[in-house]
Amino acid sequence: MVLTAWRTFVTVCRLGSLSAAAGELGYTQSAVSRQIAGLERELGVPLVQRHVRGVRPTPAGEVFRHHAMAALDEADRAVRAVRDLRDGASGRPLAVGATPSLAAGIVPVAIRRLLDTAGPVRWSLLPGLSLELHDRVVSGDLDVAVVTDAPPGLPNDPRLERRFLGMDEMVVVLPVDHPRAGRGPVHIRALADQTWVEDNEGSAALLRQHAARAGVTACIDLTAADLPGKTALVAAGHAIALIPGVLASALRADLTAVALVDPPTRGIYTITPRRDPHPSTAPLLDQLVTAFESGRPAVAGATSGAVPARLSGV
Prior knowledge:
The chain has ten helices and eleven strands. The chain has helices spanning 4-15, 18-25, 29-43, 59-86, 100-103, 106-118, 130-139, 201-213, 227-235, 281-293, and strands spanning 48-51, 54-57, 94-98, 123-127, 144-148, 160-175, 195-198, 219-223, 241-244, 255-258, 265-273.
């Protein structure tokens, strides 16, 4: 299909190797190289750079990768929709969007409970940042999105129905061998000499605001492409990071979350179109409320009234 080279490029970026991508996709390595070279000629910029252990995307390649992944997801959904129609499947799929941390936590839990109680429902899940998801609900691409009011905030859009799920307290994620691990809650002033990493401007703004209120500056010297990249840098000891409290129970084993004194918070909301709601939207919203409220803190120094410990973007 037309997007073959795009899919090859995304696979190369994910695996970090032309030969590994060739093996997974069933091509020769030279065929993979030709597809990447064709994309680079079309776009007029290098998309990958070689290094001793394989390849990685250039800055332009990283930008292209992000949009290519979204395009491929849409193409796959289009193919499935046509095949479902051909095969006689009834009803449109429930299209759900969620910020990265929420897509890694309460949203899958809520969908599982929906399927257990309501029976089979065709569905899809698209991660994204809050403003992007807002626009996709407005355009009709999504039936429901689970978002946050972290900076720059949520538009007050009369076309959408907004439902408040609860407040989420941000926490600090540290390597398990960090001197502050297991000793929360910790004051931001005690971390003023640390290097921080961020993956999006919303979380960075919460961190800067929290530090400024305490009269210190958070040194955000590292930037990650996404949440997994951010936590990988922390696990390797390069930095510490601010993450949503709802992610605490889903952290990898070499990380630990510590509560902050007077932590920054963000509100968690669902947004849905006021017109033509999907039949499964209302029961899913009920399950999202249950999934959020049933979470428990998994954060050093947190109390029983703190954040639910399961749910992302900022």
